[in-house]
Fold each of these.
Amino acid sequence: RRLFFGSDPPDTSGSGSGSTTQFDYESAARGELQNSVRPFQQDPYGCHSDALLTKRINRNPYRRKHEAYALSCPDMKQLLEWCGPDIIPQSKVPWNNNMN
């Protein structure tokens, strides 16, 4: 067994578990609703609202494109490039036999 000094903050939760915080489910649920559910209800592809577009940009800091997906599977190209704001029409999805 190894003992490390100074790596764990003291237990201030009162639970005796060694945890320094208690998980606040209500606060987490409100945060998920505000920061995830509602924005995606308005912008399902995350391309048009400032909050979701910022998240999208921050997750790809080098602005890399994944064009190989569309080249290796051309039937997926329209789906991969679709950015709404409306849901992609069934005629554009690769699992529909009526693709245009």
Amino acid sequence: IHFTRQTMGQVISLPFKLASTTLTFYRGFFHYLLGAGRNSPYLPPSDAASTVPSYLRPPTNATDTTTISSSSWTVNSFTQTPLFYQHARMHLYSLASAFYLYNKPHYRKDSFKEDIVDNFANVAIPGTGIPLSLFVWNRPLAFGFVCAASPVVSAIAALHLWVKTRGKSSISEEYAIRLLAPDDWFSYWRLNCRIAGMHALLNDIPAGYEMENKWTFLEEGAKRGVPISPYLDTPAIVVKHRNEEGGLGIYFYKNATDGGDWIIQERIQNGEWVNKHLPSNAPLSTFRVITQSRGAIDVTKECKVEDVTALSCVFRAGRKNAQTDHDSILFDVDVKTGKVLGGTTNAHWYRLGLHECLPGRCPWRSSDHAVTHHPDGDIPVTGSVVPDIREMLHLVETSHQKMCPDVPLVGWDVVLSADEKLPVCLLEVNLSCNFFRGSFDRKVYLDFLEDMAVKMQAMRLVADREGKKFK
């Protein structure tokens, strides 16, 4: 009887909990879009002058049970922790800021709108098959999508997890996590993109953002003593098909070293450690390492190596016959020990076409780091230890300080190669980066973002008062 009463009580209270969470989402979003959060300095709740509303502040007796990012629903009472509320503030502040950025210049495109349209062209909410780019073509459409789709998708996700775990998860808790403090790879990626977009705009696009140009990255890396991937220093190359005649099957490529558009390189081979974890005919498989630079908070100050922190590391184990490691299993790596943890994928987010709506066609979620072996050959990966992980992380930390200390977050593609002369090198960087589902210290990350928000909001208010025109 007690169990029945408890279950009935939970069922009856569920709609009220969902409604309360939904109201918090709308109140918080509009607080940062149009309210006091938009028109006053951003100050954390610990500051007496803070305008953070009570519904975005943790209970006075709340404590964090863990800071390492993971599936938040597995953390007991996560929605009552300070970390949850801090994440919610950053999510809602940056989400509202996207509409401020929408028609303004972006560091790699003419506008923030153009950047998200391009980036969303091959991404869909799993199981829909509809490119997200269709919903961000103009600001009213994007606004309507955020307001309408966010609660609906969060509710579906919460119900799906409850069914998948056979009732072990809490629908109301998961709904609050999805809507207010989403911890999926896509939401972290978009959070990082919005922070990068706002930071670049308000700081008049610092020089470090030029490193996302692949040729600039290689040129500057070579000048600054960073071990970049080697390139051929020849004006051009000619590529011919071995059988075609009559002027067919011949291609000319002018090298970037001579003002051309092409970076010409020899193919890099995977090193021994990487190779033993891959099937035959696998692509070059890199490590994605994310670093953050506190030197980017105030770009007028000198940045030291100690201001840069490596947050996460993921081994992207390429699939058999794939051209690149964009098609891979994403194995999390412990940044303290170098131990390879469980693997997963985000490929279901890239499945387009209405046929993906059919039952059983596209999974809503991928495995939660449950993969231990490479599926192409059943090769054991989990439990292995990446050699010299501390040296790899130190390399990207020093490279961030040397090449782009004025950029807040950088995703590095690190190669362990077969070249004895260059066993470790950097392919390129991504400055609107995603964690590829790697784990990281969420407290370190969110503290950094909140400090960034304090500075950026102050700069935005100055730009408002001065009527600044961004170019």
Amino acid sequence: GTPLVASVAEPQPANQQAYDMYLGTAKYFAFAGLFFCWHQRSPSKFLLVLYAVVAYHFSLKMSRLLIICGPIVSVLGGLPIGYIADWCEEQFIGLVCGQPPVVEEKPLPERTGGMGSILRFFERHFLPKIRPPEIVDLYHAKDRFATKVWWLDRPLRCVVAVGIMMAAVKHSRQPMKDYLEKCERIAESFSNPQLVFKSRMRDGSEMIVDDYLAGYKWIKDNTPEDARVIAWWDYGYQITGVSNRTSIADGNTWNHEHIAMLGRILTSKESRCHKAMRHLADYALVWAGGHGDDMGKSPHLARIGNSVFPDHCGDEDPLCRKYSFYQDGRPTPMMAESFLYKAVKHNLEPGVRLNPKYWKEVHTTKHGLLRVFQVMNVSQESKDWVANPANRVCDAPGSWYCIGQYPPALAPLIAKRRNFAQLEDFNAKDGRREKSAYTKHIERERSGEL
């Protein structure tokens, strides 16, 4: 129930295509393995079944949780193969060892309570329907044949084992080859770094595109060490890790209101954007060039900003459709006037450029995928206030964990903020937090009113 979660692909529910891609044919063996679990006589089988149910349930809620399906699919997928392979091996061992010894199984003492009572209840009321007397007699006849006519039973078992192994080898060659090739392709796609990637030219040749890495290195080499860089939170870790500069937000920013303020600033018109940005950052960074750039994400930024700052698009427009593209690809007036649109399209389209009074273009990478702008007229007073240790609120004296503080100049902007209450807000049990227009819109969607 939050526009921030809706803007990210990983938290979306997994679909059939995702299961096919990441689990492949192993998921079918895992399904068969659920039935083979009951071959075990120990309660350990319940762990596998419960793990499978929990992993499948949560992967349906969030696609990134498909990762927890990997271990259980591997274990369950190996059960049918392992049991059948063990059985085939036992037949050859039995042929060499001769007549098997007769083992008399002594009935175990019945334990009252717990799982034993539950199992006895099911055996008493449901097992006769699943396993009729005819099946039981056939099972006992098989055991008598194996004991009395062992010299014939053992070779017959070996013939069956050989047939199973030959059929398995014959029918598994091509699927195994296809599965290995698929694993190689997926592994190669996962191993490609996002900052540097290959691009295929029209003539078929390949080239290495390192715009993002080069852009972050430029920031490191050409900006002061205390410089602060504002960008969408997706790039926060890269700014910190590669450029060694302070970012305004990153993937570990849990404060929805702070992310919303960032979205509002970036998608506001230039004058309003600069009025807030000059108190927070020295440089602004955007991804451009159409390769997953900020323009594709920008409607989500505006929507997230509106969920906390209702004056951005208005409560009457919870999805912030005012900030979007028309069907012909043209930006709406609100988007066309925004900082983010002008920064991405700066001097690339006729009449689109940032106001030099507010920003100065200082770097654009070779292929135009990353652009850096210097914020003009930065408030030194706000920068000094934030850097002053006396203004830090820490959980203990001298601690590294300190809650972020906004400079006093941003107080009018913070006053417009409305704390976001999402649908699954477990911290607001009293129901006193006002729901945003976005949350109310999602509630109406789920109830079928829209």
